[in-house]
TrEMBL record:
Domain EamA: 3-141, 154-288
InterPro entries documented for this protein: EamA_dom, EmrE-like
Keywords noted in UniProt: Membrane, Transmembrane, Transmembrane helix
GO cellular component: membrane
Transmembrane segments: 5-26, 32-50, 70-90, 96-117, 124-144, 156-174, 186-203, 215-234, 246-265, 271-288
Identification of the protein by name: Threonine/homoserine efflux transporter RhtA
Length: 297
């Protein structure tokens, strides 16, 4: 149990450091097209290699997705790829600590999409949690201390768009019922992500990219911590501890991203922002408390 908890927590922390890596890569002159596409492509390659040599994967009768499942996984992967692309785009314009707060809005956007498209009415607990998340977001954004003055509207729109895309990805993924092995599922999704990112950035990648050791360094870090390590840890840890504990542990992405932006990028985080971050985390825990109570001991 302790090992599984650590796996889920470590996977969330891995996601949390991505925006700092991207910001540092920007400072060295690399573009969003290079970073996003190569992260997805390298992640896809690593996952396919792991799938090829995985003994566990071979013992599950080498399950091959049907055409409909393959298409659904590919589209889900494309949505995830666009989430990363738009999120990385946002940190070009606004601080990483603000971008991650905006991204966390996916927690209530997913509930809203379920309500609109699948008539799944939110509970009172969920509505109260959403109100707390929005309150925490206002505090965490720096609005109370005047730090939002001069922030790029474009950057904020991109960050909120990434939250919306992530909400779509989560809702779509939850509707895909499949017993396809994790490595097969992840590699197909990364293929969809890589294909879409290459398609929308083909001109820049073919004419303006500069591939060197510096770019390779950042791509390897982003692929490992954003594409390979979290899915592997989540797939092993989440089934053992359940959705309630997992949702709480995965919210660790928020404070880790903010701490990294403060320590490494030297972004200023004031007292009210930390209070807002804590309120968002509390809201996520509260929203999932029913799942936690139903969790078998």
């Amino acid at each position: 149990m302790t090992k599984s908890i650590f796996m889920v927590f470590a996977g969330a922390c891995s996601y949390g450091i991505l925006s700092t890596f991207v910001k540092l890569a920007y400072h060295e002159g690399y573009s969003i097209a290079e970073i996003a596409f190569l992260q997805a492509f390298l992640g896809m390659a690593i996952l396919y290699l792991l799938r090829l040599f995985s003994k566990k994967n071979k013992t599950i009768a080498t399950t091959t997705p049907t055409k409909s499942v393959w298409l659904a996984l590919t589209l889900a992967g494309a949505a995830l790829g666009m989430t990363s692309f738009v999120y990385y785009l946002s940190v070009q314009y606004i601080p990483a600590s603000i971008a991650i707060v905006a991204l966390m809005q996916f927690t209530w956007i997913g509930i809203l999409l379920d309500w609109v498209f699948f008539r799944k009415t939110p509970t009172v607990l969920q509505l109260l949690s959403i109100a707390l998340i929005l309150t925490g977001t206002i505090m965490a954004s720096g609005m109370l201390s005047g730090q939002t003055t001069g922030l790029s509207v474009k950057g904020i729109v991109y960050a909120l768009a990434s939250a919306f895309l992530y909400g779509i990805y989560i809702v779509v993924s939850s509707k895909i019922k499949t017993d396809v092995p994790m490595l097969t599922k992840s590699s197909v999704m990364m293929m969809g992500s890589a294909v879409l990112l290459f398609t929308i950035n083909a001109r820049e990648l073919l004419t303006q990219s500069h591939f060197d050791t510096g770019l390779i360094k950042w791509v390897i870090l982003l692929a490992l911590f954003g594409t390979v390590i979290p899915p592997l840890l989540f797939s092993n840890g989440i089934p053992n501890i359940g959705a309630g504990y997992s949702a709480i542990l995965m919210s660790a992405e928020l404070p880790v991203a903010v701490i990294c932006s403060q320590l490494i990028l030297k972004e200023h985080i004031d007292f009210y922002q930390w209070l807002g971050i804590l309120l968002i985390l509390f809201s996520i825990i509260w929203m999932n408390r029913k799942k936690l109570q139903l969790q078998p001991s």
